């Protein structure tokens, strides 16, 4: 059996007529930049999350950048975040000249450990940027309460959690700002790069809308030094076509995760989702010993895997200047040596999952 990790091909075939028609509407109109699909998508996404405003942009990375630019974060500032995530989170903090300040993670959810945040706050701290990793929101109420006491802004990096729920609210609408990604392999992905920022702050929304078009207030009149961070109209059209199916796909992802949990709970360390929230399962990540050997055995059996993430950010060469070293964040370091992501998509079959279980069992027991 050969299994597809994300199965984007079958998804396209299922929605081909709708997607092709949406793309051709853009081609026929020739409105490739900031066409009407952009504002339509923003309205749909904002309504879905409950946030007042959605600003779509060129990538999840640029969404993070825009959110911090809108807050005037820059040299001399500090932003607290997790070392166990994709580099874009801390990379954009550093890109603005601010300092990423890392806090270790919870050993069960792999999200930032809220109990450790306060001791990392200094007079230079401007914001806290929790990551809702693998599709599950972080402990946002506790983070928001702490931030309010310390007069800090909270930016949820929800690149993996768009569509997840937290205590009756939607990810991306759990804090001052929420950022997500529409990279093709995300739970809701376009056919290139794409992202969005969500907020209910009118002033921040207007500023980010300007920043993404080079800081323009009107054509060739620039209020801010901005960037070129517009979403292509074709990508907006693709997302609109796929978005109609997204609630159903979330349910299918959750059902697949439930099957994995049943099959694997006595074999490996399976993911834990807290009772007051849900996950959209951007990844289904387990922990194993002898990871390289297990991955090799699965690959030989036609089962692709991935490691999210093999090296915590505080140990990356590009962040050496921050002065962190091995042992500074022991939980993140330990998890990074054992974590492995199995195939996860809405179209994963029970037969495929049982096959993955059998092969994994065989490799773990030698």
Secondary-structure topology with pairs:
Blueprint: H1 8-29, H2 36-49, E1 53-57, H3 60-70, E2 78-81, H4 88-95, E3 99-102, E4 125-129, H5 140-150, E5 153-157, E6 165-166, E7 169-170, E8 177-181, E9 195-199, H6 202-211, E10 216-218, E11 221-222, H7 233-243, H8 246-264, E12 284-287, H9 291-300, H10 330-338, E13 339-342, H11 350-364
Parallel strand pairs: 2-3, 2-4, 4-5, 5-8
Antiparallel strand pairs: 1-9, 6-7, 8-9, 10-11, 12-13
Helix pairs in contact: 1-7, 2-7, 3-4, 3-6, 8-11, 9-11
Radius of gyration: 20 Å
Number of beta strands: 13
Q: What best-fitting shape do the alpha-carbon axes yield?
A: globular
- Mean pLDDT, as a whole number? 98
Strand order of the largest sheet: 1-9-8-5-4-2-3
Number of domains: 2
Helix share, percent = 25-40%
Question: How much of the polypeptide forms β-strand, as a percent range?
Answer: 5-15%
Low-confidence runs (pLDDT<50, min 5 residues)? none
Distance between the termini: 20 Å
Looking at the overall shape, the CATH architecture of the largest domain is 3-Layer(aba) Sandwich
């Amino acid at each position: 059996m050969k299994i597809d990790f994300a199965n984007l091909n079958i998804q396209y075939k299922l929605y081909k007529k709708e997607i092709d028609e949406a793309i051709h509407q853009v081609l026929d109109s020739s409105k490739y930049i900031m066409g009407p699909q952009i504002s339509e998508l923003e309205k749909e996404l904002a309504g879905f999350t409950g946030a007042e405003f959605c600003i779509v942009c060129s990538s999840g990375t640029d969404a993070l950048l825009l959110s911090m630019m809108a807050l005037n974060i820059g040299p001399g500032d500090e932003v607290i975040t997790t070392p166990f995530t994709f580099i874009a989170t801390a990379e954009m903090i550093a890109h603005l000249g601010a300092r990423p300040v890392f806090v270790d993670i919870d050993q069960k959810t792999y999200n930032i450990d809220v109990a450790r945040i306060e001791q990392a706050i200094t007079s230079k701290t401007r914001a806290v940027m929790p990551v809702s990793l693998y599709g599950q929101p972080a402990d946002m109420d506790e983070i928001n309460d702490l931030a309010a006491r310390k007069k800090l802004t909270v930016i949820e990096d929800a690149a993996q959690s768009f569509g997840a729920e937290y205590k009756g609210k939607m990810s991306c609408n759990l804090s001052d700002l929420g950022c997500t990604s529409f990279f093709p392999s995300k739970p809701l992905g376009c056919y290139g790069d794409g992202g969005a920022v969500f907020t209910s702050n009118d002033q921040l929304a207007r500023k980010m809308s300007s920043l993404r078009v080079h800081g323009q207030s009107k054509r060739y009149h620039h209020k801010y030094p901005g960037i070129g961070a517009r979403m292509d109209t074709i990508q907006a059209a693709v997302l609109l076509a796929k978005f109609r199916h997204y609630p159903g796909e979330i349910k299918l992802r959750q059902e697949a995760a439930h099957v994995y949990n049943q099959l694997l709970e006595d074999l490996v360390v399976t993911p834990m989702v807290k009772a007051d929230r849900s996950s959209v399962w951007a990844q289904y990540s387990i922990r194993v010993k002898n990871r390289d050997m297990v991955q090799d055995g699965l690959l030989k059996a036609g089962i692709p895997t991935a490691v999210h993430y093999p090296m915590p950010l505080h140990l990356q060469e590009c962040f050496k200047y921050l002065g962190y070293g091995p042992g500074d964040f022991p939980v993140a370091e330990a998890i990074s040596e054992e974590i492995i992501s199995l195939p996860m998509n809405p179209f994963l079959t029970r037969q495929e999952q049982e096959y993955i279980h059998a092969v994994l069992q065989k490799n773990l027991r030698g």
